[in-house]
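Purpose: get a first structural picture of the assembly so the mutagenesis plan has something to point at.
Setup: three entries, given in the order below. No constraints added.
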Amino acid sequence: MTKLRSFLKHEMVKFILFTILILFLPLAFKGGYLLNVFVFVGIHTLLAVALNLLLGYAGQISLGHAAFFGLGAYASGILTATHGQNPWLAMAVVAAAVGTLAFIIGFPILKLKGHYLAMATLGFGIIVYIAFNEAVELTGGPSGFSGIPNLSLGGFSFDTDFKNYYLIWGMTLVTILLSLNLVNSRIGRGLKAIHDSEVAARVMGVNVRFLKVQIFALSAVISSIAGSLYAHTMTFVSPTSFGFNFSVELVTMVIIGGLGSIYGSFLGAALLTFLPEILRAFQDYDIVVYGLLLIFMTLFMPGGLVRGIPALVGQIVSRAGAGSKADA
Amino acid sequence: MLKKSSFILTFVVSLALLAGSALAAPPIKIGGLFAVTGPASFLGEPERNTAQMVVNGINAAGGVKGRKLELIAYDTQGDATKAVQAANRLIKEDKVAAIIGPSTTGDTMAVIPVVERARIPMISCAAGSKITEPVKKWIFKTAQNDGLAVARIYGDLKRKKISKIAILTVSDGFGSSGREQLKAQASAYGIRIVSDDTYGPKDTDMTAQLTKIKGSGAQAVICWGTNPGPAVVARNAKQLGLKLPLYMSHGVSSKKFIGLAGGAAEGILLPSGRVIVADLLPNSDRQKKSLLAFVKDYQKHYKAEGDHFGGHAWDAIMLLKGAIERGGENPAAIRDQLERTRGFAGIGGVFSYSPSDHAGLTKDAFVLVEIRKQDFALVK
Amino acid sequence: MHIGQQIAQYLLSGLSTGAIYALIGVGFAIIHNATGIINFAQGEFVMLGGMFTVFFLTVLNLPLLVSVILAIAASTIAGVAFERLAIRPMKNASPISLVIITVGGSILIRGIAMLVWGKDTHALETFSGNEPIQLGEATILPQHLWIFAVTTVVIICSKLYFNYTISGKAMRACAYNSRAAGLVGIDVRRMVLFSFAISSAMGSMAGIIIAPLTMTSYDVGVMLGLKGFCAAIIGGMSSGLGTVFGGVILGILESLGAGIFSSGYKDAIAFIILLIILFIRPHGLFSKGDTERV
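Result (structure tokens, whole complex):
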């Protein structure tokens, strides 16, 4: 028990430090464009945490998560801009609806394993993407949907990057806290068991199928909320933001950050959101650099940034001067 | 700790960049947002190239009233999120006086709220009519509205007494905007759309859609897309022995299309900006001088044919140059002067902006051309 | 044109696109069967085949046959290099990292192609003319016959290879159990390398024979790769007839979907069918489900 308590204490300290960092970060930006970038880092962190619950903890891949993000964004946009509904109410209703959808399709989809699961989620993502493009009357089609209102609370409108930063990071921090609780609970241990061996988990009395579907739905709900926040921050959505590429980008965030690490998701999201900014120096070469980076990261930091950097430092120290590991 | 150090690093790098540029005599900064990579690169690349070429040309000739221009161009990849990030950077970090681009209607609609709030004039290079309808104070555009191209085609159909048509549009921003206009204007010309189909931007075979059209009783086919889709459509139509008149959009008005479609291009009609027929125009044409200069410059710099997409950026920079010459580099002054532009003969047409019109072109911006003997010919 | 004629054309069009998907799908299946990897870069080899041919043909002005052979050779070298530099160093990697590394590889290959050859689309002359061939109520082009022929030859060759040659059998052994294959003296690493070589050669061949019809550019690989993947999944990841049927089913569904239901949703229709197949028969329509890995 004391061990558990000290572990929780440790987690709490980490979380508080992280919260402080996030709260005071805008002071360093002085209202510059980095603040705007960090608004997106917040949204992407939310998404990466959501996907990490599925991918990192339950070990189930999804190459279609951009679809849940997009469904949240479009449904929020349509309900508020076209039908004048309250954005907060819309966000909740949409999240519930997307969660229900995920719950229903979760049963047949999560029966699949490995690359069949990858293909099925990919297919789902593409179907939803096509619907965004083709349902022109509803979504505005490929040229997008504009005129989505900013969120507001009473008379207070979240209409600047500064306000949105705290709104989005507030939501993200709450999600991180809840996720940390979840993964350190009985459910979290059940998930880890599924990740290691489904058969063993079943033997141990974990209702594998139901638990997987629940996590899938939860992950979809968080993604949908991220989508709603995105729509109200951007005030504009278009299908290109929710395609296969973005699904892959999300998986990349989780893997580069570190599977099964909530803070890793933040690192991955931050790195990938910053990447275009960093790669601007390479101009047209950025796509090549991006590809190389993916390969190098997977080759040399299979545990992600969150484990890779300490390991790399250790390796450099211990191996100073030793031969290359090209043929390892 | 790690996170912190990466922020600091980014900060230092950007500070260093800022400091580096501050040492030289301050040029007037113009931001560019172009979809240089990604699915809309056929727009973004010629636009970026042209903008850079024109800016270099202006600077080589002594700049604008003695001040050099500096183009800071970012790649939006045709993605709304990245476009907004880049726009924010242009405004807050680079502190540009004006922005040209983005290349696509989607990107443009995404950045409009950011630009309007920052009160920076922006000249979009995208065609969607909703960009300037309703008029937004700080937003202008140079690309011709798709509606004007549709009007050109429908005018020709009416002349030929064709009333039943089939449309085949690509399912991206360009195609859906064209489709919207084709459907909206049909009744005004007494035209009925008997078959309304789409194809994906990366589709490789359109025989299914064309087979359906063949059975639909249409008297003409209008295909709305950009390379390479329409070339596949042209070839598939020939394969199926489809004898109906085939109209394309201005999206394929460059020699590249003829190269791709080969023999199947023969007899295809399309509305186009004047740039591809520059040398065929009468000397009295007001745009001829600009057009020939643009075509020659582009050929010299990039060893490629300048198309009307590049022309959108040419127009945008030249319009900005005129506004800065008249009113200085203050964003508000540039905006006011842009709005007072009258009769500027550019690549896309003769521009006259006004407080109620930020698109600035009339139907004359398009001519109808036919592909004959692997070249474009003017249809009178 | 009455409905019967139309359907004949839909079926024939579907058959010809299906053959392309099948050829690409077989490439996926071969690598998967030897290594358990889904190579998301497979589509890029299709692109490389077409682009290399255009390059040799129009830039270096070589004859068509020489260009084709060189293009297949160059793509194969690219495939081998990819395996040596990116796949082999990954020991004991999780399937998810393998997915990511092949995705990274595909982005990299596409990016290099874009930088080297530019973003333009290129056309390629058809191998034997453009005169449509009337087949009953429907028409196809001579190039389609090339596609059918090459697909047939490739499928027969791969069947013979896997069933009757030592290295083919060895590769199948690696697929069932690579540890055991290693224990009986099969050089597993060489087999993996070999599978990449074969499938990149096959992918590039697909890219070459379709380029005259569909044209080619640095980014054609994404969609074609995806469709080929789809074909392979429907076919249960077999390197033989299963994938051919998978490709043809997909092609015909697309074509009928576009012609009869809605051209905008035709890909969605294809993917919905794919999902249903996966839900009902998770290991493909034609597989007995004996290759499941836990």
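Chain A has one domain: 2-327.
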